[in-house]
Amino acid sequence: MPIICSVQKNGGGEKTVTFYKETNFKETPIGKIPEGWGIVKFGEVCKFKRGLSYRSNQITKDPTKIRFITINDFEKEGGLKRDAEKVYIKEGVYVDPDFFLTDEDVLIANTDMSRGFIIGAPILIKDIDDKLVYSMDLTKLIFNKSKIDGEFLFYYLTHETVRQKMKTFAQGTNVLHLNHRLVKNMRVPLPLLLEQKAIAHILSTVDEAIQKTDEIIAKTEKLKKGLMQELLTKGVGHKEFKDTEIGRIPKGWEVVKLMKITTKIKDIDHKMPNKVKEGIPFVSVKYMLKYPDYDFRIVYTDPDLEFISEKDYQYHKRRFDAEKGDIIYSRFGTIGHAKLIQTEERFIASYSIVLIKPKTIVYPLYLVYALNSEKVRLQAKIATKGATNRNLHLEDIKNLKLPLPPLEEQKKISEILSTVDKKLDVERNEKAKLERIKQGLMDLLLTGKIRVKVGSENAICSC
Question: Which of 94, 108, 238, 251 is most buried, most CB within 10 Å of its CB?
Answer without folding.
Answer: 108
